[in-house]
Amino acid sequence: MLFYDSLFLTLFPVLYVLYLAIHNSSIKKWILLIASFLFYAWGEPLFVPVLMASTFVDYLLAPHLSKIADNQNSEARRQFLLAVGVGSSLALLVLYKYSGFLVANLNGLLTLFGTASISEPKIALPIGVSFIVFEKITYLVDTYRGISRPAKRFSDYCLFVLFFPKLLAGPILKYHEIEKQIAAPPAFAWEDFWIGFTRFAQGIFKKVIIADPLGACADSIFGADPWSIGYSYAWLGIVCFTLQIYFDFSGYSDMAIGLARMFGFRLRENFNMPYISQSLTEFWQRWHISLTTWIRDYLYIPLGGNRISNFITYRNLWICFLFSGLWHGASWNFILWGAYNGLFLTLDRIFLRASLRRSGAIVGTTVTLLIVMLGWVIFRSPNISHLSGYMAALAGFTSSTTKPAISGDIPFTIALGALLSLLPATSLYPLLIRAWKTMNWPRIVANFAFVAMYIIALARAITIPFQPFIYFRF
Fold first, then answer.
1. Which end of the chain has the lower number of beta carbons within 10 A, N or C?
2. Cα angle 304, 58, 183; round to 5
3. What ranges do the domains of the chain cover?
């Protein structure tokens, strides 16, 4: 179920009124839990029993992982139980997301030796499974480390896993960040409603008005034979995809954060104007923040981080971003994309970040954006063969014999997306922020604009065919 589906838009006001009418925090929690369960079951009915069984395993293990709750367990036993819990969650990810990829590559090896191939499993990928598994792992590891306490009730942990605003594409939460809000759902406040609604309006506007039209253009260009699209179409395609993936994913995050805020819940931010970054290191501090911090806390630091030597630091960066690439998808292009990011993050530490800083903001931002855009070509290309052809097209080494279909509103949409992405890098942005904080009329105008954005985006969402969120596939 999507946030702008007619079914969701019909049922959500009923749910919200019911939630506000109840003042007992325990009942409010159950309303959210049941709504979240039905929200996910609507789209993934076959995966729900598996997810609930895995969630119950986490709940049973957590008290035995905690030093506070169970100080009788030896360290070795706690480590073993942690491995069981994390392993069972990762098994879900491997089964649903990577089994086909692993079998396909195994078959490639078997073919070399003339051995019969194995039939590839046909398992549908549940929406949001990567986000769900990562949150389950944070709960187990943080409980083991003593950062989080075990959930007092199974219903509390289920609500953490299933909370519907963030369920399908994040942001990735940690249990201790939201534990108190789950235990006693916040009372209604008009400020929460309005802040949440305007944030939701921004998100749906980003998705429907900017991301979807640009996505159609990017699909048309990337779907053509890359050796036949020519230089100009190749660059148009990557510009469209660069803006699409940002406004699509940050739009979902805005909608999730906004819906949660309407219920009084505060979720962590997931984006912070990433396209104004002046190095790739800064970009990854601003892009998909919840994933970056997850990788830092649960992989990079346990591997040694940057505490041992430069060589170990570079190794850890490569491992983390190869893992990040694999997390995004079971395909070699994602692994290559992870290696590409690992390379430039290593170069940042050796010399590149300092060089870009000395070159000034315009050069730093331009070079970083170009690095990111070329990385998005790797990310978007369906296979290595397509990638090589598309890179050749970007370099002007192909003929322009195919003219992909481009709608007339694309130039305006690109201009709007570029303006919203890069405005924070200009000297005008601090003036706008100061006016917002010190004067009333900018806030009044903005509030009217948010309502107009919501109405326009909703009208388009109802009339234009459905375009799934990009990160649903991850």
1. N
2. 100
3. 6-188, 191-278+360-473
Cβ(226)–Cβ(401) under 8 Å?
A: no
* Other Cβ atoms within 10 Å of 75 Cβ, number: 8
**Residues shown for the chain:** 474
β strands within 11-137, DSSP E: none
CA atoms within 13 A on the CB side of 416: 15
Residue with tokens 């591997």: 303
Helices (H), 381-427: 384-394, 410-422
Neighbour tally for 53: CB within 10 Å: 11
What is the reported pTM? 0.92
Query: Which amino acid makes up residue 61?
Result: L
For residue 281, what pLDDT is reported? 95
Write out the two tokens for 390: 């598309």
Q: Identify the CA nearest to 457 among candidates 416, 403, 426, 398.
A: 416
Rounded to whole angstroms, the Cα distance separating 231 from 228 reads: 9
Are residues 92 and 129 in contact, defined by beta-carbon separation less than 8 angstroms? Answer: yes
Query: In whole angstroms, what is the distance from residue 295 CA to residue 341 CA?
Result: 14
Beta bridge partners of 229: 400
Could you give the angle at the alpha carbon of 166 between the alpha carbons of 249 and 242, nearest 5°? 5
Three-state SS sequence of 253-288: HHHHHHHHHHCCCCCCCCCCCHHHCCCHHHHHHHCC
Rounded Cα gap, residues 395 and 439, in angstroms: 49
Q: How many CA atoms lie within 13 A of 253 on its CB side?
A: 23
Question: How far is C-alpha 187 from the chain's CA centre?
Answer: 29
- Consecutive H or E run containing 377: helix 361-380
Helix (H) or strand (E) holding 85: helix 75-93
Residue 86: the pLDDT is 95
Query: N- to C-terminal Cα distance for the chain?
Result: 16
Structure tokens at 292: 């970056």
Of residues 87, 297, 58, the one with CA closest to residue 174: 297
Could you tell me the two tokens for 220? 């048309």
Quote the tokens at residue 137: 């792992």
* pLDDT above 90 for 377: yes
Express each pLDDT in 283-340 by its tens digit.
999 999 999 999 999 999 999 988 888 889 999 999 999 999 999 888 889 999 999 9
Give the active site residue among 23, 64, 288, 328. 328
Rounded to the nearest angstrom, the gap between the alpha carbon of residue 340 and the centroid of all alpha carbons in its chain is 19
Q: Rounded to an integer, what distance in angstroms lies between the CA atom of residue 388 and that of residue 231?
A: 14
The predicted-structure confidence for 45-62, as pLDDT tens digits, reads as follows 889 999 999 999 999 999
Whole-number Å distance between alpha carbons of 26 and 358: 56
